Amino acid sequence: MKRRIFLQSGAVLAAWPLIAACSRQSIPDSQTKMKIDPVTVTPLDKPHEAWRSLLPPEAYRVLFEEDTEQPGSSPLNDEYREGIYLCAACYLPLFESQHKYASGTGWPSFTQPIAGHVATKRDYKLIMPRTEYHCARCGGHQGHVFNDGPPPRGERWCNNGLALKFVPRGETIPELRG
Predict the structure, then answer these.
(1) Contact yes or no for 163/141 (Cβ under 8 A)
(2) Which residues form the signal peptide (predicted)?
(3) Which fold, 27-168?
């Protein structure tokens, strides 16, 4: 028994440089609470459960239970028309189409969000810290941001397609709901 604990401890210590390097892959965020950019978006005072009747079950699980859709499953992976990507729950615009790119990860990815429309917090669910982001208005979980994106910002905002609604340019953007 003592030998097993000793070997497990050694494995963790041997992997520590890798864990530390991977943890630097996420964008720094010194707070564990949600952080919203300076542009003001008024958060909704609506419990997550209230969204259940407005959303398909799989979208609700992603947005309000922080589930993740299967990679490659979203039709938005192949969406490259001009337009805007909204939060699928409250319809707050989150991304502009000119910031979408093919990351090869299996999820819609963007180089940057619309300033102030997302809130971030640290996520330790996979042991390594990551930066998770949510809609700044309804709190719906969107995805994670990493620093392995293309220049000039180097950011990859990796989003669940079920958490987004795409509106092509020229079509009417639905009014915010909530």
Answers:
(1) yes
(2) 1-20
(3) 2.170.150
Whether the CB-CB separation of 131 and 29 falls below 8 Å is answered with yes
pTM of the full predicted structure?
0.76
- pLDDT tier at 39 (50, 70, 90 boundaries)? low
Tell me which amino acid residue 177 is.
Answer: R
Q: Sign of dihedral through CA atoms 44, 50, 53, 57?
A: positive
Label residue 154 by pLDDT band (50, 70, 90). very high
How far apart (Å, rounded) are the C-alpha atoms in residues 149 and 103?
A: 8
Q: What is the DSSP string of 53-96?
A: GGS-HHHHHHHHH---PPTT--GGGG--SSEEEEETTT--EEEE
Q: What is the pLDDT of residue 122?
A: 76
Closest CA to 88 of 10, 177, 158, 11: 177
Each domain of the chain, given as residue ranges in start order, spans 27-168
Residue 84 has pLDDT above 60, yes or no: yes
Catalytic center residues: 158
